[in-house]
Amino acid sequence: MTRTLMPIRTLRGFRDLLPDYMEDFRWVESRVRSVFERAGYREVLTPTVEPFELYEEKEGEQVEQSMFVFEDKGGRRVALRPELTASVARLFASTMGELKLPVKWYYVANMFRYEEPQKMRYREFWQAGAELIGASTPESDAEIVALGWDSMREVGLGDGAFIRLNNVMIVRGMLDSWGVPRDVQERVLTWMDKLGKVSESEVEAGISELIGRDRTRELLGLAELEGKDPSELESLVERYPKSREALENLELVYEAVKAVGIRVRITPALVRGLAYYTGTVFEVFVENVPYALGGGGRYDNLIAEYGGPSTPATGLSLGLDRIVEAVRERGIRGPRSRDGVYIAVVSEDLRVRAFALAQRLRYEGIRSDFELRGGRSLSKQAEYADKLGWRFVIFLGRREVEKGVYVVKDLESWEQHEVPEAELVNFLKSKLTSSL
Ligand code: HAM
Q1: Cα–Cα distance for residue pair 186/62, rounded to 1 Å
Q2: What pLDDT score was predicted for residue 2?
């Protein structure tokens, strides 16, 4: 009996990433790493799977609802990391004040969120993030913002990039003054985070139900001050001491980032979807891209919540998949140049010679490959080499082996060279730009 095999697809929201994509991905990643490293950040990596309690009540409703949570074989409730800030805070807390402050750490890792897949929203995605622990100065927030900005410049997106900046305590200060309990505040913030994603009337109705219409109006009045100078918010927060303090801090961060040439837009209704923020919050945008390419902010209480010493902290995460997409859409990297050498064989018995030659070239740092399949005509082998972007093809025949002279065809110029054995390596090195 024959059985038709069903193709097995990737799970919804998960992707296979192919070589062309991965080359762009690794390029973006290396550019972002260099931005972080130049500012003194050092790499850490934490586990992909964490105890569920690490995230419980710390991430906020939106992230918690979209977590991959399951029981492991030992009956423990575990989660795939939806982000890495919680792990970094846990890691720092476990060092119990042994490290010299401030600590500057960065990471590049995959994250998992069980969200409804849509454009550039995946269930597995990649972030590059930096966390600055042990400093509460406005300049530390400014530096974190600058890492986002510099990353955009470094990958060629600097022209359209801008930062939306706010301080979440402006909103929280108002809610505190009104005596709104913490759990209700979280829900108000979850609604506010939906601004721009669902209709404003829906947000207004959602918040009104929680804190009444007038206060909702006052809160949403903040949204109208987008793009204004922070001083224009002063009258609005006058009556709320914590909001006033937050605004003063926002002004300092704003001035610091503007002074180094960062394009920044005050966005007073920006609260972000994570619950742990206690001060500055921001998002990285590029014009005409409808979603954030990164985001972050200050979280001064999180480390103490994990049992560590009370330590201020601020950080950001960049969405690498979204940055790669923007880079590709704009054609920033341009067409790849041809590289390396492909060794085609005239007859099957020469394959072992081709293997030896490829190995020799590889040891010299020259990218090379040879005909492995067998049974293909020379023209088919050349076609394969051409399609895969090899720069040269060496046609290896008995005559070439006996004479010690190689026929080297340049697939860029279509020129053919006869190169003696002893000169081959130097000839190739002089023509190829990259050497490994
Ligand atoms: P976040 O805003 O949740 O912040 O994520 C940061 C970035 O990751 C987003 O701006 C977006 O580019 C990308 N991202 C998020 N979800 C997805 C998804 N489903 N698919 C593709 N890309 C996505 C954080 O994660 C915080 N840990 C930031 C932070 C660090 N705060 C302080 N330190």
Answers
A1: 10
A2: 62
Helix intervals (H) in 364-423: 378-387, 398-403
The pLDDT score that the predictor gives to residue 196 is 84
Q: Would you say 272 and 164 are in contact if contact means Cβ atoms under 8 Å apart? A: no
Q: Is 122 in the pocket of ligand 1 (CB under 6 A)?
A: yes
DSSP states of 191-217 as a string? HHTTBTTB-HHHHHHHHHHHH-HHHHH
Neighbours of 181 (CB within 10 A): 8
Place of tokens 């973006």: 28
pTM over 0.85: yes
User: Burial of 2 by CB count in 10 Å (0-12 exposed, 13-18 middle, 19+ buried)?
Assistant: exposed
Please state, in angstroms and rounded to a whole number, the distance separating the CA atoms of residues 314 and 382. 55
**Residue 254 beta carbon below 6 angstroms from any ligand 1 atom:** no
Any atom of ligand 1 within 6 Å of the Cβ of 321: yes
Cβ atoms of 335 and 378 closer than 8 Å: no
CA distances from 385 to 6, 245, 305, 376, 395 (A): 33, 65, 58, 12, 11
348 burial via Cβ count (<10 Å: 0-12, 13-18, 19+): exposed
Question: Residue 73: what pLDDT?
Answer: 97
What's the CA-to-centroid distance between 154 and ligand 1, angstroms? Answer: 19
Decide whether any atom of ligand 1 lies within 6 Å of the 267 Cβ: no
- State the amino acid at position 58 in one-letter form: K
Contact partners, residue 7, CB within 8 Å, separation at least 6: none
Type of residue numbered 396: L
CB-CB contact of 349 with 397 (8 Å)? no
Distance CA 285, CA 297 (A): 15
Q: Which pLDDT value is given to residue 103?
A: 98
Q: What angle do CA 91, 136, 300 make, to 5 degrees?
A: 50
Is the pLDDT reported for residue 335 higher than 70?
yes
